Queue: 2 jobs
Job 1
Amino acid sequence: MMNKDTVHIQHELDIVQARQKGREISKKIAFGTVDQVRITTAISELARNIYLYAGSGDISIEEIHDGNKKGIKISAVDQGPGIADIRKVLEDGYSTSGGLGAGVPGVKRLMDDFSIDSAVGKGTAITAVKWLK
Amino acid sequence: MRIPILKLNDMLLVSIQVVLDDQSALMLKEDLLQKIHVTGAGGVVLDLTSLDIIDSFIAKVLGDMVSMAELMGAKVVITGIQPAVAITLIELGISLPNIMTALDLEKGIELLRNAVIDDE
Ligand SMILES: Nc1ncnc2c1ncn2[C@@H]1O[C@H](COP(=O)(O)OP(=O)(O)OP(=O)(O)O)[C@@H](O)[C@H]1O
Ligand SMILES: [Mg+2]
């Protein structure tokens, strides 16, 4: 059984939509309560970043398998301005919008695997995976 | 969606019962400050029992709300943060320093009563 869903992020309320999808799918995969909150919070951070910095983009949430491991993969893809200094964005407290700067480093901590691919003027793709233990 | 703010003696009670989107959070902040101003309330209990996540944006709005209310002379107690939400907040790297918290609404009201009385 595969679950894959994409939520297009363009309006602020799409962030809530993405969050609810993430909650639904992580529940279906049978993640525990704390992991469900971790996953949903990570999605919220990534969706808001798309909305704030790129204007629009997509959040995809899917169930993945690796041998007999099961997990959830979140992909956040946009064609926004991109990130010039990825190392800075990974630091706690770095924000260009007066935010707490907790989003990106927070997602990295909340999830098991994390990667950023970004090019200035082209866009950003962030992938984060959580494995069911 | 507008979140109702109830008045109980010299206290304001807010219990968030809806899915909290960004606009609703910002509106609550403004409504609450306005209500503190109009009623002269000395304390606010903000119950988050039904909040299923707190991300960095909501955390910032909550933190700002508490600092602004205190600037106006009202003490705020946050109650009912779910265990999974508390764990996630800390892992996100967010602590809500200097914010009074209590387990539930009842304990929050009690804590606030004591804090306001201590001040008088
Ligand atoms: N999708 C994106 N496209 C372009 N820039 C981005 C994107 N996501 C994040 N950034 C940049 O990285 C910085 C850090 O992001 P992060 O989410 O960690 O913090 P924040 O959004 O500024 O604040 P917070 O998430 O705590 O409210 C942002 O301020 C922004 O400059
Ligand atoms: Mg962010």
Note: The beta strands of chain A are 4-9, 57-66, 69-78, 113-119, 123-131.
Job 2
Amino acid sequence: MTTDNQHDLITDICTRYGNDKGRMLDILTAVQERLRCIDETSMHTIADTIGCSRIEVEGVVTFYSFFSVERKGDITIRLCDDIVDRFAGMKEISMIFEEELGIKLGQTSDDGRFSIDHAACIGMCDQAPAALINDVVITSLTPESARDIAQKLKTGTPPQELLNSVGDGNNAHELIRAMVNNNIRRFGEVLFDDANTGKGLKQALHQSPQDIIEQVIESGLRGCGGAGFPTGRKWSMAANTPATERYVICNADEGEPGTFKDRVLLTERAELVIEGMTIAARAIASTQGIIYLRGEYAYLKPYLEACLQSQRDSNFLGKNIGNVDGFDFDIRIQLGAGAYICGEESSLISSCEGLRGEPKNRPPYPVEKGYLDCPTLVNNVETFACIARIIERGAQWFNSIGTDDSSGTKLISISGDCDRPGVYELPYGTTVHELLKLAGAEQAAAVQVGGPSGQMIDPTAYGRKICFEDLPTGGAIIVFGSHRNILEIVEYYLDFFISESCGYCTPCRVGNVFLKERIGKIRKGFAELMDLDYLRELSNTVIQTSRCGLGQTSPKPVISSMDNFPLVYSALLKEHPDGMRASFDIQKTLEESRHLAKRRSHIFDTSYDN
Amino acid sequence: MTTETTITFTIDGQTIEGRAGQSIMDAADQAGIYIPRLCDVEGLHPQGSCRVCTVKANGRSTASCTQPIEEGLEVENETRELRNYRRDLVRMLFHEGNHLCPICEASGNCELQAMAYRLGITQASKFPYLQPVRPLDASHPDIALDTNRCIRCGRCIRASKDIDGKHVFGYVGRGIEKQVGVNGSKLSKTNVSIEDYAISPDVCPVGCIIRKGEGFKTPIGARKYDQSIIGTDKKQPGN
Ligand SMILES: Cc1cc2nc3c(=O)[nH]c(=O)nc-3n(C[C@H](O)[C@H](O)[C@H](O)COP(=O)(O)O)c2cc1C
Ligand code: SF4
Ligand code: SF4
Ligand code: SF4
Ligand code: FES
């Protein structure tokens, strides 16, 4: 592309987004898609066109893993690097792609046609190993299918035409056409009960905002994204902060490894989610909403756009909704670009504002001062879907399901070593044992409840209940059989947090690297008893001093595995009768992890020269 | 709302008065109580990133530079627990970069080094050294940037943006790879000037931003923190 063409292309893209700095993410996504990179020249052009400095653009480009300064292939293959995918044979799949395409992970072919990269969990753990080929999701990869795909790509088959089949339900919809499966294994009484939607919103039209909030409070609904904050309380805080505009944001970033229930909800109950957002808009007096859709789910965007349009056509979105004078509300979709931290609500807001996805200082909280400094309500996809049902069927009905402090049902994503991975809608209070039985995983040796930021429990704890009073979870349950190496899992989770930490604060940025180093030392048999104290103390510092939920929970895999699987650790400790300490080479460990992560570090590569 | 609301709270048991909206750190400074800090400095918006200023407020740990005071709040500052966290954090900052104090021209004026002394970090550390390979940018005639010593405090970024109105510096990358970049391929390609506040000795707490030709003007032994421990200047505890 000539310099002039490139310049015009970029300024056209910027114009499409109103030359608005706040739409930086959309602009970068479009430039990356067309040019396969955002190079020095592009960064300059973007900065000049939207009126900011080049370093601000570079700051955003280098924050998100879907953007790159160096050119990526026309076809970018992102292999899901989650632990479940690894255990399902991703290594072999990855070798096949490397062999067929003649490039290594992290590289781009000389002709610019292909790149192979790793992706953090892409939300397909129930159909692992999975990969993204540009926006197209490929699931349940086998060595044979991987080879076949690679060969077809070489002969020029476009990614969309690689599919031999499409998945169940709406995955077959003409606007989705993905080979993804829903794998809904249990249809509960709240969310998957009835496909008809719209009743909740119709009720809400005749209720006052205060009435709606009262019902949400009475229902006992707690946020389904993980933290479990009482939804009604959050709504009344947003409604009671004086402002001329307020925003409703649906958190569809679903980045916690092992979670995929929001993907299924968006595929099968998108209208219910939109309805919940519209009810929220009425309750807090908002006119604008955003669905923050993780970049990995870009394949759902055309379908969701169509759902929004059909809601507009039925007068459920737009001006004077349901013919109620002055009830105006509309929603746009903000696509993410590969950053787990953007699921944290204040980072998500930064990201919607076109900034690096870093958490904001709190207080003020988003309900007081959020998106564009206005009161902002951020709720999870499932939370909004529950809202629509609560208004439709009543707070009492909802409150009667579940336990005392956890009302309703919970969507659970189960994956790993089980016979029936997928999504289960179950009332709060279900025990881990009951869950494992349903999923065909009664032999489980360890269960990770709530993803990496949750807890790793052992069989003596399977009688515990899934609810906020006992084992809270955003919905991820990952099952590990007795043939799995606990410390490999712990080390993987630390790797995940290291690469997803935003780097803002010292303890999370540096502390997680140190935790991983010591787990590596233990795995190699170089560690002593005192290393366990070291791990506990360091974990405590990271938990106590980190700035947001990521760092405040990242040491949990270490702590909970030490608490619940102490023998795994003690079996690996080295005894030193002579009192000498085993030596350890940090550069060697880093080199190994770099190799594993298939990522070149400009900071820690000794071969890097300026 | 013409009268300022006074808020009464305690730090380590001592009763303090502050104004509504003030951070714990600002109120403490005003009362002559020092809370250790690295990323916060007089005159710039607090960032809350180094976490060295972590205190306990009603039993919960929080960064005192960004946490507002509240009526009746009980703040812990000089406790053994907090000292241990702070030591860990300062060590982390040493270990993620490359610091060789004896040959560093910031030695004696350096807040990181001074904080290590204050916190009594003298023994060999338990943490591994990450030994990053970071470039030195000496392209500018008056200014050099040795990012080996950068602690990512962002003081230069805020100073350039909010005081100089320039955006010479900015963060790039994320996680452990996060670092300070400049608004151009190198420093000489930016509009930085030796006159900028961002380049003044008050801004960079360590020896990362170097004013060329001024090195070792004050001999070692006669420098700021050779005279007194950081945070012991009673009139201005924040300095
Ligand atoms: C590191 C991190 C990642 C998060 N990721 C998500 C996410 O992907 N989806 C989500 O709904 N909440 C996520 N959260 C929780 C959000 O910050 C927030 O609590 C939630 O969106 C609020 O909605 P809820 O009350 O309906 O659960 C995350 C939090 C942290 C700290
Ligand atoms: S804990 Fe700190 S470094 Fe980690 S993600 Fe949160 S703000 Fe970023
Ligand atoms: S910057 Fe400070 S801590 Fe680092 S080497 Fe120089 S004097 Fe020592
Ligand atoms: S260059 Fe200095 S002022 Fe800027 S972030 Fe690094 S240590 Fe802080
Ligand atoms: S001084 Fe408060 S976080 Fe750095």
Note: Residues 3-61 of chain A form one domain.
